[in-house]
Design brief:
- By secondary structure, this protein is α/β, with parallel strands linked by helices.
- The protein has helices at about 20-30, 50, 85-95, 185-195, 220-230, 230-245, 255-270, 275-285, 300-305, 360-365, 400-420, 430-445, 470-480, and strands at about 10-15, 35-40, 105, 110-115, 120-125, 130-135, 160, 175-180, 200-205, 210, 295, 310, 315-320, 325, 330-335, 335-340, 355, 385, 425, 485-489.
- Strands 1, 2, 3, 4, 5, 6, 17 and 18 form an 8-stranded mixed sheet that branches. It has a 5-stranded parallel sheet with strand order 7-16-8-9-12, with helices on one face.
- α1 (about 20-30) runs parallel beside α11 and α5 packs across α6.
- The mean pLDDT is about 95.
Length: about 500
Amino acid sequence: MPKKKMKKFDCEIAILGSGFSGLGAAMALEKRGISDFIIFEKAAKIGGTWRENIYPGAACDVRSIMYSYSYAMNPNWSRAFSPGYEIQAYVEDVAESHGLMGRVRCNYGVSALKWEEGGWTVTTEAGDILRARFIISALGPLHVPVRPDIKGFADFKGTMMHSAEWQTDYDVTDKKIVVIGSAASAVQIVPEIAKKAAHVNVMQRSANWIVPREDKVFAPWQKKLFKHLPFTQRLIRWKFYLFSDLRFSAFRGEHKWLNRIMKRMITRNMEKRIDDPELRKKIIPDYAIGCKRILLSDNYLETLNRNNVSLNTDGIDHINASGISTKSGAQIDADLIVLATGFDPTRMLGNIKVTGLGGVRLEDQWADKIQAYRTVHVANMPNFLMMVGPNSGLGHLSIIFMIEQQATYIAKLIAQMKKRDLKTVSVSRSVEDSYNMELQEALKTTIWHSGCHSWYQDKNGHIFSLWPHRTTTYWWHLKIAKMDALDFE
């Protein structure tokens, strides 16, 4: 039986996701004169993190002035740390102003990608099949909600929701609420719902280092200044960027003295914000600052002082029909259980099945160790390019910086290939392994390798989420990246 001939490409490039990464990649391509791309979006409208996370108090923990594209500054931020809905509006405005809305296919979730005959076959959740020469994965590392392994979920008779699946029509007024988790989303949710709830019980598995966010409202004169003299906003952006990147020294092992100073300062600040001496003991972590994500909040610790808020560290034994039973045997009744339990960073592609050269499945390849080359290329996956891929996360600065460097690198790479009439680019496993050995050696000198377990690591303790150097180093690595380390055809 003759082999079935593959159809021609429906597009040169398929971009998966329409959040900051996907739009950033699209704008970088267009800047290079490359316009044959389609943006696939699973949801009914564009966006990513800030379309999904609409829980009470949802806001960015990176300064607004840094959480935007450098070439699309926004003079209209309402606050130093913008609420989520403002960031979502900004994303939509950027897409509209750059003419990208017509390039997005909404309600077009992708279920499978398969490399065959010099390109990728894209299968959508609706069963449509398209062909693209390149895939740019811009799904982001934190988009698959984690549900903890606790017995009895199905037994609960009240309402239960994950922070990323918030039911906006649910009224928390006079409700008994249990919040499972005490990290990034919890420190934003708890102060808001505590204003109306009858009682809020926060179930804390481990304490977190919390520093003041120092949020403030931008005055009308500041917005006018940013609008009419945009260089003023850019100067402030540069100031925060340089200060934050220099602060990276506190995460390096050779600067332990600096981390110890930070620890004393932050401990005193946290204890000062808590009234009860016993409660103070519960909120101070037993690991080095920065080993896990540092949280920013101006009101979470103060909220724990309220009469209608309790912090529980007993641990959860199981969930029952009326609430939660703790390991100490106590019963905590609840009308609502909030799962503020974050996301699974190991599932960067979500439920998409990716099959590369020789039938190699990305899921299997990453089963023991998640890694990439230059955070962008993956062995056995030709023409597969990642935005915010393995080891491109940051513990001290805005991810938008990394997104812009990756988008520029990818667009430049594809433009060079088109100019030289090259059809495929790939990286060997040996080159990828060598690169990651260097990364892991560098990571061993950081605070993230100091002993605590966090979502920065996989089950084997391999740190796959974070970049081990300053962002200026990343910029320089991609800027001078040698193409002879890659394989072209």
